[in-house]
Amino acid sequence: MRLLLTLFLLAALPLPAQEDAAAPPPLTEYQGRVIARTMHWTGAEWLMRRVRDEEEGPAQMREQLHIKPGMTVCDMGCGNGYHTLPLAQLVGENGKVYAVDVQPQMIEMLKQNIASKGLKNIVPINSSYHDPKLPPDTCDMILLVDVYHEFSHPVQMLAGMRAALKPDGQLVLVEFRAEDKTVPIKPEHKMSKAQINKEMTANGFKLVREYDGLPWQHLMFFGKAEEGAAVPVPAQDK
Predict the structure, then answer these.
(1) Which tens digit of pLDDT belongs to each residue from 91-127?
(2) Residues β-bridged to residue 73
(3) How far apart are the first and last CA of the chain?
(4) What is the pTM for the complete model shown?
(5) Per-residue pLDDT at 80 exceeds 60
(6) What does the pLDDT average to over 44-50?
(7) Could you write out the DSSP letters of every residue in the chain?
């Protein structure tokens, strides 16, 4: 119940208005699903809570990613770097981690954590709500941990991420299980396997692997489907 209350309070905080007037309007629903509010940067320390190891099994999750030294991976919705920092260690000095977040305050906290660890292989990116701002054809893997369900522009973001993946790259979703009523998370912060598959299929992805051993979450791996993305790739900012 404490976790449920914390999530409610963090999600209820307002976000700054999107500055790009040319962007498509944000959605409140997509494919029959209510889009959750983005967690505000003022709750960043909650991301580093000690009980997260018990609730989510992050080390177990990262082990299932099968990351190898030299890979280029993206931590989408990186926050202050809870997953970014260990990912940087996994890819090694010859690999790279793109750390993407829409809130500049999160990026600043991330940079401080990167500096404290002395890591040189992380590239922070302050994205927009409708464009991940990832370079095309660069990523072996894009990891989204409890973030996709908060996208206000899911179609545009998926198109941008699809373009950033290498031909054999994978989009990896970690989402709290909507099928499990014992997971103490608000419904809009959960997703079912059926809903995840529905949305990914509609945007040019196909399920290639899944892992069901995490305490509270789905772990699903998607590759590029031949039919392509649903919308054109967003233009990169100059």
Answers:
(1) 999 999 999 999 999 999 999 999 999 999 999 999 9
(2) 97, 141
(3) 45
(4) 0.86
(5) yes
(6) 52
(7) -HHHHHHHHHHTSPPPPP--TTSPPPPSEETTEEPPPPPPGGGGGGGG-TTHHHHH-HHHHHHHTT--TT-EEEEET-TTTTTHHHHHHHH-TTSEEEEEES-HHHHHHHHHHHHHHT--SEEEEE--SS---PPTT-EEEEEEES-GGG-SSHHHHHHHHHHHEEEEEEEEEEEEETT-TTS-S-GGGEE-HHHHHHHHHTTTEEEEEEE--SSSEEEEEEEE-TT--SSPPPPPP-
pLDDT surpasses 60 at 226:
yes
pLDDT tens readout for residues 149-202? 999 999 999 999 999 999 999 999 999 999 999 999 999 999 999 999 999 999
Question: Domains of the chain by range and CATH?
Answer: 2-13+27-224 (3.40.50.150)
